[in-house]
What does this fold into?
Amino acid sequence: MPQNNCIKCTVQQCKYHDCCNNYCTLQSIQIGTHEQNPTAIECTDCQSFQLK
Ligand code: SF4
It folds into this structure.
């Protein structure tokens, strides 16, 4: 799949990561949180992640 230039990502362990340019290859992604009251970057998650 070609990279989606609108979604930059550095999670190389994800099967939707393009190998070389640090982009996602999905057309869209779902972002969410595992916190009840998110207050920092670390509180947010890419919920489209799938292990390679
Ligand atoms: S699905 Fe999420 S974690 Fe995976 S490459 Fe795309 S943006 Fe990155």
